[in-house]
Amino acid sequence: YSLALKRIAFVDVLLIAAGFLLRVLAGGLAIHVPVSPWLLACTGLLASLLGFGKRAHELIQAEASEVDARTTRASLAGYRVRHLRWAMTLLAFATTAAYALYTQDHHTVAFFGTHALIFTLPFCLFGITRFAQLALWRRGDDSPTDAILRDPAFLLNLAAWSAVVVAIIYGAR
Q1: What is the pTM of this model?
Q2: Could you read off the pLDDT of 135-144 as tens digits, one per residue?
Q3: Please, which contacts does 84-88 make with residues 24 or more away whose CB atoms are closer than 8 Å?
């Protein structure tokens, strides 16, 4: 990756997502727990969404400041904002669907003892939508992955999601 593949559009982000998948697999091996295919799907799709969002933001920033995108990151030369918007839209739908399917998977339901985790889906949708807004339409030098961690609306959503998950899991027992 470090030598050549990081310079190839789309391959760069997919390899970063693959790295996150390897971390999840290694974590499962380390604690001797089988990794859910839905967890892998959510991880890979979300990592790709975040990566493409970051590339879109970098490209938009470079175009706005009339800087050659290749001077900030070589792979940006192969990206177009409209393609990244399409990729992000498809990944947003796929990530949301994978999360919904994860919440209803027979292993998830058996482990947590409830089908009610599906009620956390609106929080997932909001979080993904908010990230897309920050990546594609917010002006600023900081990356959308950094900006989201300081965004009050996203942080409130994350806290609400956490509270609802805890209430569902421990309220069901």
Answers
A1: 0.91
A2: 998 877 788 9
A3: 84/52, 84/53, 84/55, 84/56, 84/59, 85/56, 85/136, 87/10, 87/48, 87/52, 88/49, 88/52, 88/53, 88/56, 88/132, 88/135, 88/136
Q: Which residue has the tokens 């990546």?
A: 135
The whole-number pLDDT of residue 147 equals 93
Query: Quick check: 14 and 74 in contact, CB under 8 A?
Result: no
Give me the residue label for tokens 């970098």: 58
Per DSSP, the chain holds a count of helices (H) and strands (E) of 7, 0
Task: Evaluate if residue 1 carries a pLDDT over 70.
Answer: no
Tokens, residue 16? 């970063």
In this predicted model, what pLDDT tens digit does every residue of 78-103 receive, in sequence order?
999 999 999 999 999 999 999 999 99
**CB distance 35 to 24 below 8 Å:** yes
Residue 37 C-beta-side C-alpha neighbours within 13 Å: 5
